[in-house]
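Slide 14.
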Amino acid sequence: MLNKPILGLLVTVLFFADVQAREYHYGAIEDTNLLQCEKLYWSGETSGAETCYKSLLNSNHSLAVQAEAVWALGDRQSANSVFQNAAKVEPSNAAILVRWGALYADTYQSQEALNLYTEALALEPENSYAKLAAAEILLASGEKQAVEQIEQLADDGSVPIGVRVKATIVLANIALKRDEIERAGGLLDSAENFSSDSSDDTLLLGVYAMRAGKAVRNRQNPEEWIERALQINPAYGDAYAIPAYFYMITFRYDETGEYYQRAVDVQDDHWEAHLSLAANHLRQNRSTLAREHYELAYAGDPFNPELVNSLRLLDYYDTFSVINYPENAEERLLPQLSLRLDTEERDVLSPYASRLALKAIETFSQRYEFDLKQTAAVEIYPNHDDFIVRALGMPGTALLGVAFGYVVAMDSPNAQAGEDYHWGTTLWHEVAHIFTLEASKHNIPRWFSEGVSVFEEWNTGPLNAVRIPLHVLKSLQTQEFLPIAELDRGFVQPEYQNQVIVSYMQAGLICEFVRREFGFDKLVDMLNTYAAGVNTTEVVAQALSLTVEEFDAQFAKYFEQEYGAQVEQLDEWNAAREVAAEALAKMAWDDALESAQQAIDMMPGYVEIDSPYLVKAEAQSGKEDVSAQMATLETFWRSGGYQVSALFELATYLNEQQRFDEAIEVLQSQLLVTPFDLELHFLLGDILLQQSRADEALIEYQVALALDPLDKAATYYRIANALYHTGDIEQSRSSTLTALDLAPHYRPAQNLLKSILSYKVE
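Slide 15: predicted structure.
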């Protein structure tokens, strides 16, 4: 019998609940009465299904059946309580634990779900539903063995049909993410064959939805498969949501929004589709519509942490300062650039972010012969988790920037600890994505868009140097590059540690190889060929007159010629670097110099923060050979190095040597690394003013003021002095008086005021 608290829960559900969406059961449910309700629901007869589920809420049915009914009626908390009681009543029933675990998975509590699946397998080691459900959770966490488990279930003729169908659909989904379209098609053929052994046509719903996704991935119209699914269930939102997902991962955001909207039109309680539609609206800079669907999704699915994070982000997003460039565009002319910045960072970042973004837009417009049709929006987040929620919906990922067509979001320098984050390069990289996505009409594989962005970092970006991270070279000692036709797989389904960044570098090197061997215009031809909606094999054939196999062979030869020696000598290089560091610690300057130079000779382009150039410079400093030290640091800088303290020292030296233009260039390069460094702005402003570049000096002093310096009087004086040299005497007078209000006896401000008064008399 039901105890009274549980009975009260069921009475509440009976009178107030409506049937709610949940995942298809694939045969995990066996009770015939419950299956009748499921059949009604998955055939689109939601009203009949609701009545059916409510009819199960009495003591004539087992607690497990009642738990399912309560869950189906949308009360997941009550369902949890009933499942708990059901498990107590039938402690050896593994099926109850499997379905209870599915409830936990439905409420985003993966570990608790996995625990229940493990308990079920302890009771019944061959329970295929528990095996598949556990493997799906492990797959989501990146466990490679999970795929093998799912493959075994798909191939096992002894397991229930539903298990084989679902396992095969999961594998087809993986294949489509990897762009393995032929493999996905074969898997879906198998799933459909398995389903033919069942009299329940609702088993085909997931197959048809995934076939619609395959059509999208294969650049075909998905409507045939959507229609087949809707003939079985007119309210089946996944018929649209699955193809919408594949439009999304291939950057086709207009179609993404269209299909997610159609998903919620046919199934208004498809909360995941509402969430994805909201995220897509935000990608396209439509925050009001985004909020509408986020709130709808939250009302129906308050357990989803992504929704909570996204709604919090939107509240913060609405507080951002928006600055348009040009600020006073004519009504018929859209701004070229719109910056969205945190109010506390606006006055520091806006001068540099706008300058760099506008330069990038001009550069890429010329190089790729494409003019932007909309305003480029750049959002910069001072908190990394906020940025990641903006990009992916959930925190905990190491991205630095993301582009959604005309909208770019990225980390601010304050979002990253340490001095190795070059935010200017990230901005340059992401603006390049705007051009590749829009010029190709979003018909572009991930690898090519990333490749062009990396290539532009190396060739036109702020650092203007080819930079291959050390861990990439280490990976290439044991791993091989992917074929160009399969390169997307390295981004979306990595198979070893660092494969994603290896794929970034391979993509960039492919673009560099095309430029060197075929000319930059061929890279542009490739971009324009993608715009026609063809795949990489056809692009290589049309633009380069090669098969992809011929291209792979030529690229491998190029890489071996350019970087083979570096990969082969990596251990020797690393040993020399370690010896140099050890010698430096012992103040054995000559030994440090010798080993550092050996490492530099083997890999002269390595200029990360642990570069042997820095060891060499420090050893030269130890020997008090300042000119040699500064020559080393200058080589380090010109090769793309940007270690903050070392380059500040170089700039100071160049200023003392009256090499003012070079000192300015070094300091300005550092603004794209550490714009919140107060002393950097003061030194740069002083040198600029000395060189009669008062307008530029004024910007540096105004940024310094925004950083809330301790000596505000001196800062206002610097601003006043710069204004005086620009000829803005009235504003100079105002800032001088502010300085004197703060420090009445501040002599430089007093002298400047005299000059201002004399200027006015004149």
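Speaker note: Strands lie at 321-325, 337-341, 376-381, 401-403, 407-411.
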